[in-house]
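Students often ask what a holo structure prediction actually looks like on paper. The answer is less mysterious than it sounds. You provide the chain, you provide the ligand, and the output is a string of discrete structure tokens encoding the 3D arrangement of the protein together with xanthosine-5'-monophosphate.
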Amino acid sequence: MQCSPVAALILSNSGAVRKCNRNWNAVLPARDKSFPKNANRAIRRTNTACRKLIRSVKRAATSAHSKILILDFGSQYTQVIARRIRELQVYSEIVRFDTPAAEIARLSPKGLVLSGGPASVYDKGAPHLDPEIFSLGIPVLGICYGMQLMAHHLGGQVEFSARREYGPGMLHVTNSSQLFDGIGEQIDIWSSHGDKITALPAGFRAAARTENSPFAAIEDPQRKLYALQFHPEVSHTPRGKEILQNFVYHICRCTMDWTMGSFIEEACARIREQVGDQKVVLGLSGGVDSSVTAALLHRAIGDQLTCIFVNNGLLRSREEEIVQRVFGENFHVRLKYVDASERFLALLKGVTDPETKRKIIGNEFIKVFQEATEELLEEDHRKSARKHGGYKFLAQGTLYPDVIESVSIEGNPAQVIKSHHNVGGLPEKMHFELVEPVRQLFKDEVRQAGLQLGLPKEIVYRQPFPGPGLAVRILGEVTPERLSILREADTIVVSEMESSDWYYRVWQSFAVLLPVRSVGVMGDQRTYENTVVLRIVESQDGMTADWVRLPYELLARISARISNEVKGVNRVCYDISSKPPSTIEWE
Ligand code: XMP
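The corresponding structure tokens follow.
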């Protein structure tokens, strides 16, 4: 579809910019040597102005969502609050607790939530907010520590308590607060707080009480300030979603405009704006994040995107086939398949130390990827007379939890565990400009986007798989024989988990091959063979995990199939360690 710049302007506001966007450059009047110099200058100036105008209209169109900002005081539930609000189809973003009021006003949210946190308002170094935010006229909901801060800054009394009150309770709603509309007189709640409020700030009234506290919920409806001593965001407060709904819809008057459909449309517009007519390269691993990123970019810029899929020889059975089928054949994404398995396996020969394995694989991946982009460029130049300026952009499936600046506050369990995985990360010196179209999304949102973009369920809901692949699941040396044993065992685990409907209920389920042989008996023969461990865990985000209490019958079936069908294995063990102290992967 072609359109004039003015039509593009109108269409960009009406949401149809996606269709017209790619071509509006082509319809701007072109300069011509036969024109007088002045005319060419005027054309250039007008075109520049047109482009600027269209960009600014598009920016305005994509940032016009209702938005709730969450000030993070270090609670382990901050991200849960953000997700709950997004589940209400309202966009929410986490910002630092000390974001100045002027900056908040500039971001123009419809409401603010002050998260909980591990500190006491009286602690030295406790996180405090800019009190001016209470005068912005924006509705505020304080939760737990956020409530105490609100009371503390507005002239109430907060009593220090060395003992935390923790666990379930009953909330009695005492006043007809808008926050509790439609909720009834009493509800189950879940609390975790130390300090408590003993005197209300001027203008406030109690909205609900518990057995231990007359001020379990307080409000100043005139100034649209609300606060809760308990956590409405956790599942142990079953009606908490309705409380958040009342705040977000009725008090903040947000519209439900955060949907995956609108996200995809806007993300495509942003990608086109960032990339223009340049080429983009993406390292496709077959995991959810890079797959959804690839599908989104393909929707936005078609063949300007090339995906590179590196077979490092450490993949699961048929992995390269699945990725090539889904992206190459079904999606028609331009895909460069690089079989570098021999290179990786040669480098891993004789290596047994886990960290050395990881380093070798990470470094080699960078080399292979770099060579692949150079080859791509050569191929492009060979195929087409019209040379392009190279692959300037690198697309990555960075997610929102990776970009939230974590608030480090003493006593916050969320800060303790740090990820060590960056295998596959490409170095800055490669001089790519990054395109990260899903960096606003949580994992569950990425999955929704993937489904909406037409990716199959087997990609969208697949379990995480580490960058260094099966190398970190083969303890000791990685050899072609050991890889083949592990692949066969792993295929059995996956197929049994799928057919028993357990695959999608757990975080990960896989096999590990130990460098341990033991004696067994098969028929009348004594055997001396390998040991396979089953690692099947549940987790929210991979940071902590617990082993899954699988039915014995299923464990028995997996064990029997592996020892009967996989040559070289005569013993199967079940790993019953949680993380911490263990990790999910064995290396
Ligand atoms: P651990 O073993 O540290 O793993 O408990 C936590 C989660 O991260 C995955 N994992 C990796 N992912 N590159 C990745 O992309 C890696 O090097 C890597 N190592 C572990 C692991 O599968 C689990 O989901």
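The CA atoms of residues 100 and 130 lie 6 Å apart.
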